[in-house]
Design brief:
By secondary structure, the protein is an alpha/beta fold. The chain has 2 domains: 264 residues, NAD(P)-binding Rossmann-like Domain (Rossmann fold, 3-Layer(aba) Sandwich); 180 residues, Rossmann fold, CATH 3.40.50. Helices cover 40% and strands 13% of the residues. Strands 5-4-3-6-9-10-11-12 form an 8-stranded mixed beta sheet, sandwiched between helices. Strands 15-14-13-16-17-18 form a 6-stranded parallel beta sheet, with helices on both faces. A two-stranded antiparallel ribbon has the order 1-2. Strand 14, helix 15 and strand 15 form a beta-alpha-beta unit. The longest helix has 31 residues. The radius of gyration is 26 Å and the shape is elongated.
Length: 555
């Protein structure tokens, strides 16, 4: 029986609706409901899929599986049960899903109708709080969070992988599933997790059940989910890598993914061992983090030597061999790139037991990216100083809270570090983002992403950030500010007119461009309006400033 310590507690949805956590008597009734549903769907020829974890990845993955194309008999191949632990933080997702409501906010217009269609029309998706659902499963997809917890800012080696939730889930799975059930780990995990952690845990659980001859059917296939308008397509219409712990698992995971994903246009890559699939995800994201970190030092070089690095990069990218150069902005953010390399380093030393230090570039890239946002704050300081002001006596508008352009995902965004460092220096900060309604990392910093691990712990003077709200109107955010930080490349910010901005602020401002949002004519106009402009990698602004100054009558 699940832990019922919080029986009388409630779970609050983001909209503020309260849902009482299940009581002890609810569990038997819930399992009976699931048994009845499973029986009816089996009679229709469907396999039962349980998706563990209906968060950012799991909720949409559950919808994609439930929405899989009809088989040769004209029937949906799967009935999906989304399973979420009934905690005060997450239980609300279960009644939301059962109403046909997506428990995640997404810019992709396909997410909401996907969930509604599968719950209400196709009736191939339901959600539950009871682990007993695992007894019904032919396939279990694990989307349980596996994090990397950093103990210091800018030194990823001082941290560790947190696989406790995954380990506990695997123990429960081993106690509940039928021995021939396919267990697919979709979570990004430290290399070796499937073979060195999951397999022993499930095998031991089987032995305790008297199933010593049963071989766990374990597979790994990592997700490549991208926030934004192509959220669903990044699951259903994108390349996948997979592997199985044995031939049976390999055959089953290939068959499952082939029914769910468009493998005709996006063929599967099948690797021999799960450790190869796991390593694939870590290397893939570490590579991208490294090429982003590479431009950090050249950004500083450009700022100090009159070079517009963005023009330099564009000139280089005409070579096909260099077309993947990416300017990092104020850090990289998102859930994967800031941490995944750390999972690899941790696995090498912890799961594999090696004591030597072979990793140089991977941790260095993470450290550079983690602290790059602090450079943006230095530019705020310098621009204000040029106007005779100091950060501690200034009101600063941050335009953009998310980690990348035109999405609402704020996880590990560089903008968070900008706000926190400005607060440490005494600034008052106001925020606008057209895609973000609530900035949970600030509002719930005592408990989000988990107690004791907010980025607030790396800075002083953070208490007031709990009260920071995201302004819905840019006019409200800009009114009366001394400085504006263009922190994210949202399309609406690219369209801002300098005269309109200064009219909204009511005074000349210090303007910091973190993402090459301003062209030279806009920069020139800001200087003409009496503003001070600086930008990451944009050392040429001094030339524009001097040119404007030479045209003034008093120069």
């Amino acid at each position: 029986m699940e832990d019922l310590a919080n029986t009388h507690a409630v779970s609050l949805s983001p909209a503020g609706e309260a849902f009482e956590l299940p009581r002890e008597e609810d569990y038997d009734r819930e399992f009976a409901r699931l048994q009845d549903l499973a029986q009816r769907h089996r009679e229709a020829g469907r396999e039962i899929v349980v998706v563990m974890g209906v968060g950012f990845v799991g909720a949409v993955m559950a919808g994609v599986v439930a929405d899989a194309p009809a088989n040769e008999a004209g029937e949906a191949p799967y009935f999906v049960i989304g399973m979420q632990r009934p905690s005060t933080r997450s239980y609300w997702k279960i009644p939301y899903l059962n109403r046909g409501l997506a428990p995640v906010e997404a810019e992709d217009p396909e997410v909401a109708p996907l969930i509604e269609r599968c719950v209400k029309t196709r009736q191939t998706l339901t959600a539950t709080f009871t682990y007993d659902a695992l007894q019904l499963a032919d396939i279990v997809v694990i989307d349980v969070q596996c994090d990397y917890l950093k103990e210091t800012l800018g030194d990823v080696r001082q941290g560790h992988a947190d696989i406790k939730a995954l380990e506990e889930s695997l123990k429960i799975i081993g106690r509940k599933i039928n021995p021939d059930c396919l267990v697919l780990i979709e979570t990004t995990v430290p290399p070796g997790t499937t073979e060195y952690v999951a397999n022993p845990i499930i095998r031991k659980a089987f032995e305790q059940r008297g199933l010593s001859q049963a071989e766990p059917c374990l597979a790994h296939s990592f997700e490549r989910v991208m926030p934004g308008r192509d959220y669903v397509a990044s699951i259903r219409e994108f390349w996948r890598v997979c592997s199985g712990i044995n031939a049976t698992a390999r055959e089953k995971v290939i068959a499952f993914l082939s029914n769910v994903i468009d493998v005709t246009n996006f063929p599967l890559t099948v690797l021999d061992r799960p450790i190869e699939s796991e390593t694939c995800k870590i290397v893939e994201n570490s590579y991208r983090a490294t090429i982003l970190a590479f431009l950090d030092e050249w950004s500083v070089f450009a700022e100090r030597n009159g070079v517009d690095l963005h023009k330099v990069v564009e000139a280089i990218k005409v070579r096909p061999t260099h077309s993947n150069m990416i300017f990092p902005g104020p850090g990289i953010g998102g859930y994967c790139l800031p941490k995944d390399g750390g999972l690899g380093v941790w696995a090498y030393n912890t799961l594999m037991g090696f004591e030597d230090d072979i990793f140089k570039l991977t941790p260095m890239a993470i450290d550079i990216n983690d602290t790059r946002a602090l450079r943006a704050v230095q530019l705020v300081r310098d621009a204000l100083r040029n106007m005779g002001k100091i950060v501690a006596a200034s009101r600063v508008a941050l335009l953009g809270a998310s980690y990348r352009q035109d999405v609402g995902d704020t996880r590990y965004s560089g903008s968070e570090l900008i706000v926190r460092k400005l607060a440490e220096m005494g600034a008052e900060t106001v925020v606008h983002d057209p895609y973000v309604k609530r900035w949970w990392e600030l509002e719930k910093q005592d408990s989000y992403p988990r107690p004791g691990y907010s980025m607030a712990r790396f800075f002083r003077n953070q208490e007031g950030l709990r009260d920071v709200t995201v302004n819905a109107r840019i006019e409200d955010a800009l009114e009366g500010v001394d400085a504006v930080v263009l922190a994210v490349g949202h399309e609406p910010y690219r369209l801002l007119d300098p005269d309109a901005v200064v009219a909204m602020t009511g005074r000349p401002i210090a303007l910091i461009d973190c993402f090459n949002l301003l062209d030279d004519s806009q920069i020139e106009r800001y200087f003409e309006l009496g503003c001070e402009v600086k930008g990451l990698g944009r050392g040429h602004v001094k030339r524009i400033k001097d040119r404007v100054a030479c045209r003034r009558p008093d120069s």
